[in-house]
Every structure is written in C-alpha cells, then in structure tokens.
Design goal:
This protein has helices at residues 31-63, 67-70, 74-104, 110-143, 149-175. With 182 residues, it is mainly α.
C-alpha cells in the first residue's frame, strides 16, 4: 500500500511545486497538508463502508434469535457463524482507523497514520466483500433451490470485483503515466 492513503496514481498524492519540488501533481502543499487532505478523504470513504458493514452486522446479530434459525441445517448454521465473524472483522478493520487516529493524534505522525488507516480500510473492504458473499450464500441457500446458489453468488461476486477492484485498477492504469502522474 502506498503512502498516499492507498489511492496511488498521482495527482491526489504528491506536491508538484514550492515545498516539494519535482513530484509533479500540481498541488502546492506541504507533507502535513497532504496528510490532512488525505485523512479527510479517507474518513469520507470509511463513512460509506462503515455504514454498510454496521447495518449488515446488526442484521446478522438478530438472526440467531429468530425461530427460523433453529431449523437451519448444521451447514447453514456454520455458514452463519462464519458470516458473523467476517462481519465482526470487517467492522473492526473499518472502525480501526478512527481508533488509530485518536491514539496517535498530536504525535506528528499523520502521514504514517494515513498510510496505516488506508491499509486497515482496504482490509475492511476485503472483509466486507467476504461478509457480503457469505451472507448472500446463506440467504440464497435458505430462500432458493440450492442448484442456483453458486451461480447467483458467483455473478454477484463478479459484479463486486468489477466495481470495487477491476474498474478502479483499470482507471489507475489507464489514466496515470509511468511516473505515477498525468
């Protein structure tokens, strides 16, 4: 993961003149200003992911208390436990940057805090992906013919991978030059 908060690819991350010559993004900001900007951007990104994972996790926590849960097969109960654990891990990773920032605030290590928060956020997104796929598998196993489940889950997983990883990586490759800027 890169020091720019994981977004990589140029104009967001580096200062091009004045205090940090030769880096080429067209921003005139100090490393501290860059870290402040990157932190604000990261916090906005985390808010979106946190909301989704917290709603899903809250829902998952209530399922075990429904009468229908007791009638699930052992396989589905195991899948439920895996899903809840993945949701808990995703929640922890996505809330982690807030705790990290709070603990290191005022220590003049914001660039490093941004880098670690970015790593935690990326881990949280991957764990959220796993949670969603696991939850979808469980729900579809209960709601539909088992023969359809692998096909439906694979299709949704492919969509997530396209939206969350393939498209951003394509844009990063397509719109940035070899020196990381364009």
């Amino acid at each position: 993961m890169q020091e720019d908060g994981g977004r990589g690819g140029g104009s967001d991350s580096d200062s091009g003149h004045g205090r940090n010559p030769g880096r080429g993004s067209g921003r005139d900001e100090s490393p501290e200003e860059r870290a402040d900007r990157q932190w604000e951007e990261l916090v906005q990104e985390i808010r979106v992911a946190q909301t989704g994972v917290q709603i899903l996790f809250g829902f998952l926590l209530t399922v075990v208390f429904t009468p229908h849960f007791q009638r699930l097969s052992e396989t589905d109960k195991t899948l439920y436990v895996v899903t809840v654990v993945l949701g808990a891990l995703a929640t922890g990773a996505l809330i982690g940057p807030v705790a990290f920032h709070r603990i290191v605030a005022g220590r003049r290590i914001k660039p490093q805090a941004v880098a670690w928060a970015s790593r935690l956020t990326f881990a949280g997104i991957v764990l959220l992906l796993a949670t969603l796929v696991s939850a979808l598998t469980l729900i579809l196993r209960v709601a539909t013919d088992d023969a359809l489940v692998p096909w439906l889950v694979t299709g949704v997983l492919a969509w997530y991978l396209l939206c969350w990883f393939a498209l951003p990586l394509w844009a990063r490759f397509r719109y940035t030059s070899e020196d990381g800027n364009r």
